[in-house]
Amino acid sequence: MQELIFTVRCDRIAKRQAYELRFPVNDQLIQRIRELPDDHRKWDSLNKIWILTTPALLSLIKKSNTPKKWSWKFWIRDNWRRYLTTFLCTYILFRFYNELSGHPFGYVDAVGLGLIGDGIAATLKERIKAIGGDRKELTLQIKKEQGEIG
Predict the structure, then answer these.
(1) 9-12: strand order across its sheet
(2) At 106, phi and psi to the nearest 5?
(3) Fewer Cβ in 10 A, N or C end of the chain?
(4) Which contacts (CB < 8 Å, 24+ apart) does range 108-116 have?
């Protein structure tokens, strides 16, 4: 039986207007992709990914009715660890910047450190399971709270 809740990962291909799609086997999504024009989709059997052009991906997103309902609760519960990690990484980078670099702090430095702090947090969320939440469990928990499932 296929799962009702699953994650589709889209990664942009550098210097192309195309994306790589990774997801667990789902016949309905695969059928929707196959309905797209041939020149806008390609199956990469070696890496087991679909490659879609940007217009094809947008068309696919418009066809799917997900998410059916926006949930701030899900967004906060899914990302709070990342934002806490971002805050801590950014604070540490700002706090020790002068000691490590040896020159005064500037506007460009602030923007760069902010982006670096967020990048570190995003990488940590992907690599350390304790930082990233379990989306399946979180979605089921929120649906139970909202009374959508018993």
Answers:
(1) 9-12, 18-22, 49-53, 41-44
(2) -130, 175
(3) N
(4) 114/90, 116/89
Residue 33 has, within 13 A of its CA and on its CB side, a CA count of 22
Select from 46, 133, 39, 14 the least CA-distant residue to 83. 133
H or E, element range at 43: strand 41-44
CA distance 126 to 38: 33
CB 121 within 8 A of CB 86: yes
| Global pTM value | 0.45
pLDDT grade for 130, boundaries at 50, 70 and 90: low
AA letter at 58? L
